[in-house]
Design brief:
Length: about 250
């Protein structure tokens, strides 16, 4: 079989490196899609991402990373949004979402998911990665899951407090929406809407691609399922699903 010729253009496509279910990675992915930027995505398994980021010379190991054809590297969803030309957001709202709301949501969900062998989170984290990473990820999962839980301080004992803190973030954002309406800044969909919708997506569960496929197969543990159900009707999460439906397709 002859290989299809690779054009210079294809060679130079930006490469987005992700941990697929990460909401920060979804934020970057959505921004590139919204701006019509053609890129490739490389999904990495937790653990394997550390080697990849270090080899690329990234300052830290966190994803998303965006690698341009000329070797320029952008780390962090915020910088990737800037590079993609998404400007004009509300800095204060985005900062709270990025630095407080999103880490809390992640810590809370992983405090339940990583400790329940039936949750399906292992397969969600490994889906779409290379065969080798998938194999190593499965073999090392008992250790990997403990390292992840320790790294995020995601322990089941913290769940009552984490749930209360997530509820405070939902209270805050319900109020933001009540004050601003469906578009947070200006008359149309923009950077802050995209940021809020993507960072709340893990609890809003929009049934829109690519989030739908990436997160499929999750079974919520009993420690979380009543809250996921209860939160679902909150204005914030209804807005997230509406926003995904209207703007993510
Ligand atoms: N503020 C960063 C946060 C990125 C972040 O926390 N990424 C997580 C995934 S949700 C990560 O890569 N964790 C693994 C690590 O730091 O090695 C952003 O907006 O990109």
């Amino acid at each position: 079989m002859t290989e299809a010729p690779v054009t210079a253009n294809e060679k130079q496509r930006p490469l987005l490196l992700t941990l697929a279910p990460s909401h920060y990675c979804e934020r970057a992915r959505w921004a590139l899609d919204l701006q019509g930027i053609v890129y490739d995505e490389e999904r990495l398994a937790p653990g394997a991402h550390i080697l990849r980021a270090k080899r690329l010379g990234a300052p830290t190991t966190s994803l998303p990373l965006l690698l341009l054809g000329d070797g320029t590297l952008y780390q962090g969803s915020d910088r990737i949004l800037d590079w993609a030309g998404l400007s004009g957001g509300d800095l204060e709202i985005e900062r709270r979402l990025e630095l407080t709301t999103a880490p809390l949501i992640r810590q809370c969900l992983y405090a339940g998911l990583l400790h329940d062998p039936q949750s399906g989170i292992r397969d969600v984290l490994l889906r779409g990665t290379s065969k080798r990473q998938m194999k190593i990820g499965r073999l090392t999962w008992p250790l990997l899951r403990r390292i992840m839980a320790a790294g995020m301080n995601a322990q089941p004992g913290f769940l009552p407090d984490l749930i209360a803190q997530v509820e405070r973030e939902l209270d805050w954002f319900d109020q933001v929406l009540a004050a601003r309406g469906d578009y947070l800044v200006g008359p149309k969909f923009g950077r802050t809407d995209l940021t809020a919708a993507s960072l709340f997506a893990p609890v809003a569960l929009p049934q829109v691609e690519p989030v739908k496929s990436i997160s499929s197969g999750i079974t919520w543990p009993h420690s979380l399922s009543p809250y996921i159900a209860k939160w679902s009707d909150r204005p914030t999460l209804r807005w997230v699903r509406r926003t995904y439906k209207a703007h993510r397709a």
